[in-house]
Design goal:
Blueprint (H helix, E strand, L loop, with lengths): L28 H6 L42 E7 L7 H11 L3 E5 L8 H9 L3 E4 L9 H19 L16 H9 L11 E2 L2 H4 L14 H12 L2 E6 L3 H16 L3 E2 L24 E3 L4 E3 L3 E3 L4 H9 L9 E5 L7 E8 H8 L9 E3 L4 E8 L2 E7 L4 H9 L10 E3 H8 L3
Parallel strand pairs: 1-2, 1-5, 1-6, 2-3, 4-5
Antiparallel strand pairs: 7-8, 8-9, 9-11, 10-11, 12-13, 13-14, 14-15
Helix pairs in contact: 2-8, 4-5, 7-8
């Protein structure tokens, strides 16, 4: 079955942030289920002049505060976070300092800075730091932009690192709204936006004197130490695109250690708790799930859609036109919805799929409980999940207006995540 191409509307220039609690208009569920194409690639240029000063003034604002749901112990514990990277010039130096102090940190990445720095993401994860989401672009995003960018960067991070990362998000400039918080939770971020307790003002000191640090205008280290002592600990906001941070971090951490502070890590299981698939799986009428084959089958055939790597192997081994064969089948229990469904012989499907937990070319997403693959469509990567899915999820999908695609065993992974979350 060929999937329709979703073409998002052109992105508008960001406007002043809105604090309206109005929820975003629902996107087309059928289109999101079928494909979920994002027209945005990982950008090419690194912008190092961004910072995350709040656009408002009240610390209790959405996006600026540290969520209470994290239940962090802040008594003389500093939770190091770094925004806007990765930076080829400064992130490796910061990682070296953290290693010397045996300190863990959370790196909130701006998507535009990822391309060409993928090895830095893998190093951050390998050294047991958390690789987190700071939005695709460092702007105040519209709700429509936000709904596209959050899952796009989430999937890019997990794909590059190779394992699902804890799900943390920080708004550029701390600019969160009720609508964006709803999107974050739908996309697997249980705590919404994560703010900070301690603004190091490194972006301000990078220009020389910082008028925002009264009494410490020319003393970056002095400000960080004094500010930390005044608060007693908490989540500290740095930027790993700033030379001043890379140059002074070792001294700052040393001074804090001498004052009796330790360095904590944000919880490492947020949003990545393993999900077990429970309950019966949905198969089209006349078929049933065969765990040995990994698909819904009847006496002779297995029914897809099949992952891209299976299709490639089928074609490479002489399968010819049979690799793309479909048959019109009623897919709903009432027999009222008939669509083309990919069909292979059961033996061929079992042989090509392989003996692993997941079909070749796919990996298990523990948060979803299903196998996923990332493919390129119109130059943009998309992530699909493969069932067959639990009957309860199919019911949720149809109730939400997902249409005929609800009955098939391939859904857009972001859509599946939203259905699991109870959209």
């Amino acid at each position: 079955m060929k999937h329709p191409i979703v073409r998002p509307s052109s992105l508008q220039r960001p406007t002043a942030p809105s604090r309206s609690p109005r929820l975003p208009a629902p996107r087309s569920l059928a289109a999101a289920l079928a494909l979920g194409v994002c027209t945005l690639g990982l950008g090419c240029g690194a912008e190092v002049d961004d910072h995350d000063e709040s656009t408002g003034s009240a610390e209790s604002e959405v996006g600026v505060a540290v969520p209470r749901s994290l239940e962090l112990d802040k008594r003389k514990i500093v939770y190091l976070t770094f925004d806007d990277g990765p930076s080829r010039a400064h992130t490796p130096r910061i990682l070296d300092v953290l290693a010397r102090h045996r300190a863990k940190a959370t790196f909130f990445l701006t998507g535009d800075n990822i391309r060409g720095n993928e090895d830095l993401l893998r190093r951050e994860a390998a050294e047991r730091h958390i690789v987190a989401n700071h939005q695709q672009k460092h702007v105040v995003a519209s709700t429509a932009q936000f709904a596209q960018w959050v899952p796009f960067e989430r999937d890019a991070i997990d794909r590059i690192v190779g394992t699902p990362q804890p799900k943390y998000f920080r708004y550029p400039y701390g600019d969160g709204t009720a609508a964006k918080e709803t999107i974050l939770r739908r996309e697997g971020y249980p705590d919404g936006g994560v703010g900070w307790d301690l603004d190091t003002l490194d972006w301000c000191f990078a220009g020389g004197r910082c008028a925002r640090a009264p009494g410490y205008e020319g003393d970056f280290e002095g400000w960080v130490i004094a500010h930390t002592q005044s608060r007693g600990g908490g989540v500290a906001l740095f930027h790993d695109v700033q030379n001043i941070t890379a140059s002074h971090l070792d001294s700052i951490l040393t001074k804090l250690e001498r004052l009796g502070y330790t360095f904590g890590s944000l919880p490492t299981t947020r949003g990545v708790e393993a999900r077990n698939v429970t309950g019966p799986r949905y198969c089209v009428p006349g078929t049933s799930y065969d765990a040995n084959v990994g698909f819904c089958v009847d006496a002779d055939n297995a029914y897809g859609p099949f992952p891209a790597a299976m299709l490639d192997k089928c074609r490479a081994t002489g399968g010819g036109r049979a690799c793309d064969a479909t048959i019109a089948r009623a897919v709903d229990a009432a027999g009222e919805v008939t669509i083309p469904v990919p069909r292979w012989s059961k033996a061929n499907a079992k042989n090509i799929r392989g003996a692993g937990t997941c079909p070749i070319g796919t990996t298990l997403d523990t948060g979803l409980g299903y196998c996923t693959e990332t493919v390129t469509q119109n130059g943009a990567p998309i992530t699909n999940a493969y069932g067959p899915f639990e009957s309860a999820l199919v019911s949720r999908c149809t109730a939400a207006g997902g249409g005929a695609s609800c009955y098939l065993n391939r859904w857009n992974a972001s859509f599946l995540r939203s259905i699991i979350g109870g959209l």
